[in-house]
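Final report, closing paragraph on structural work. Over the funding period we assembled a curated collection of sequence-structure pairs, and we close with a single example.
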Amino acid sequence: MECQIYNLEYYENLLRIHSKTAQEISKIRWDFVVQCNPVTVLDYGCGCGFFRAYRPKAVLVDTFDIGGYPQTGITRDRYDLVCFWDVLEHFASCKYILSCLTDVKYVALSIPILPDGMELETWKHYKPGEHLQYFTHESLSDIFRRFDFIKIKEGQPECPPRKDVWNFLYAKINH
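Its predicted structure, as stored:
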């Protein structure tokens, strides 16, 4: 089983092939988080930076990723919104994001959720070596509840063009 390599070639391929779809999805994501009215945003796992590229003009977006594509890095101690678009399933543990959850008002994410009644091994998002975790609605909420977040919104606004991908918005309790 081969592991996905997130290098410059991978990101250049994303740019070349998926720019129109990425613009569409970025708009959907910005519409999804508009109620947060964020001024400062961290796009954690930004890939080639589509979410930042299509941001509203008044929003400051920092980008961070393990890949080689140019990024700003994490430049602030606190953010209004931290986004994990298509990210959490790639981590063996959520401990990697703990520092991002301490001083933030909102967390937004997109993640594949296995449909009820479907076998994991037959699902299109079953990707051993690339997807290291699989979540249900309940397991995801349990994780964020442990860090004092409450779910305020969920839905599938990216479907189509995507399938079985859910977006979630969490707010920090007593922030």
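The domain at 8-172 is CATH 3.40.50.150 (Rossmann fold). The mean pLDDT is 88. We thank the funder for supporting this effort.
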